[in-house]
Amino acid sequence: MASIGIAGAGVAGRLLAYQLALRGHRVTVFDPASGPEPAGDGQGAAGFTAAGMLSPLAELEHAPAEVAQLGARSLPLWQQVAAALAAQLGTRPDTYLRCAGSLLLAHPSDAGSAARVLARLEVAPQLVADLAAPQALSAAELGALEPELAPGLRGWLLAGEGQVFPYALLPALVAASEAVWCWNSRVSQLAPGRLTLADGDKLAFDWVIDARGLGAKDALPLRGVRGEVVWLHAPGVALQRPMRLMHPRHRVYMVPRPGDVIVVGASEIESADRSPVSLRSAVELMAAAHSAMPSLAEARILHLETNLRPALPDNLPQTDIEPGLIRLNGLFRHGWLMAPALVDDAIAAAGL
Amino acid sequence: MDTLNLYGTPLDSRLLLGTAGYPSPSVLAAAIVASCTQVVTVGLKRTLAGDGDNGFLQGVLQTLRAQGAHLLPNTAGCRSAREAIQLARMARELYDTRWIKLEVVGDEYTLQPDPWQLLEAASTLIAEGFQVFPYCTDDLVSCQRLLDAGCEVLMPWGAPIGSGQGLLNPWALRTLRERLPDAVLIVDAGIGAPSHAAAAMELGFDAVLLNSAVAHAGDPVLMAQAFGQVVAGARAGYRAGIMAAQAMAVASTPVTGRPFLIG
What we know:
The structure holds two protein chains of two kinds.
Chain A: E1 3-7, H1 11-22, E2 26-30, H2 46-49, E3 53-54, H3 65-89, E4 97-98, E5 102-106, H4 111-121, H5 124-127, E6 135-137, H6 139-145, E7 154-158, E8 162-164, H7 166-175, E9 180-182, E10 187-191, E11 194-197, E12 202-204, E13 207-210, E14 223-233, E15 243-246, E16 251-257, E17 261-265, H8 279-292, E18 300-311, E19 318-322, E20 325-329, H9 335-349
Parallel strand pairs in A: 1-2, 1-13, 2-9, 5-15, 13-20
Antiparallel strand pairs in A: 3-8, 4-8, 5-7, 6-7, 10-11, 11-12, 14-17, 14-18, 15-16, 16-17, 19-20
Chain B: E1 4-6, E2 9-11, E3 15-18, H1 25-35, E4 39-43, H2 45-49, H3 56-67, E5 70-74, H4 81-95, E6 99-102, H5 115-127, E7 131-136, H6 140-148, E8 153-156, H7 170-179, E9 184-188, H8 194-202, E10 207-210, H9 212-215, H10 220-240
Parallel strand pairs in B: 3-4, 3-10, 4-5, 6-7, 7-8, 8-9, 9-10
Antiparallel strand pairs in B: 1-2
Helix pairs in contact in B: 1-3, 1-10, 4-5, 8-10
């Protein structure tokens, strides 16, 4: 049994702590946040702001096959985690995760954009064995799956995709693990077997793990990529699964959350600007969502949030392991998508 | 030596490359290198709207320095002369260049340039000492007005931005080349395939600017290399003088005894 210190309590840090504590290790986690719950201010873990889509296929639009492969492996791993958390905490697995597929949508006038995206996704079965190509739906089939969609929309089902609910899952990973959680503690430096806190304290462990997002900027060439989301309260607009609207200029998703909430996102801007959501992004996101679901017109705008995705120059995650030190950083827009596979691989490679 | 001259800056490469929509900054950097481009354009509107660069632009600049290439800031996303002028001034201050690729969009669906706002912005910026690269339509008269205002370079579209349709109106582009022999003409926007770029160069255009065709290719780095090669090749072809087409076959080796086709 090893003593392990983890810097960062985002998706990767919490999952690492949960998995390592399950294996019987003595785990301590450090994070500058004030506690395990979301603050909703866009200052904390990007995983709270994220949609939480488990969409290995849809991400192939912009990401390389490696991301799709990690995502495909991670999906069943999240299902196992959700089942275990439910058993342990006396909840239901669908508190944390739902797999009812996802939809790609396009207005008929944007058929050209849709064709470009679909052309990229159709190679999926050759890249990843577990992924099926998108399945074109008739108007009747689409209407049966999601009655609220605008008539005339084209739709494709990505069977097997799903979503996590970050506001439930992130706190549950803390509640269910035996790790010690040190909030309000920023790690300033990591070295093999040693963590230095911002207040100067040096702490010794058998292993230390860097699972920070942009907090690891001093150690790695990370940049923040601005993302903006809108939370809508839409009672009566029942949405069963995540959907993405394919559009020539905007990439927009709509994701259902408990409590009649629909999260609409997200911009992707090469800027490390954490200031509030811009008018342009808010208008574009909401106009796109409204065009796909006219019944959203009377939805109430609950919340606007900006956060930064931590990205390395190749936009791919990076795992580095040397004796006493693991670094797992740069999960960019794919933290929820790939964390379980990355965490399992890192634990196995370190022999923990 | 066949040199492209942009406002007094001599360049060997006739491919200008945009920086939006690549899978990652690493892929972008590799594409810039593979294309051998010497001019790279970067949209600043959304980056400069808030806190500024997250490291993306610094990364691009580093690649440019290593390659000896030039930054061409652009005003993509601006809808009025006023907005574009402001952004151009900001770009000059930040990146220490008089070059500005001037984009003023007049229609949201086609992203067609607004000729009037464009001319107004170009005139103002030239008076302030900028060297303006206007993204314009292929309309002869509005191109002429931009030249009158002091632009030395014109960048007419081949097709709407990002559409990849190639040269939709070769007649208009040919007319521009014939009527504006002294202007530096660059086809900007609409290029999808290397053959589109070759067609522009064979029309006698001085260069092509493209972005999506590389950024959204299956393998952007390989596509960047392909465009670099095809632009250089087609330019050489244009300079070599393309023979006129004719309807009948002409044997490379004369066939004796059959001087005329009878029957």
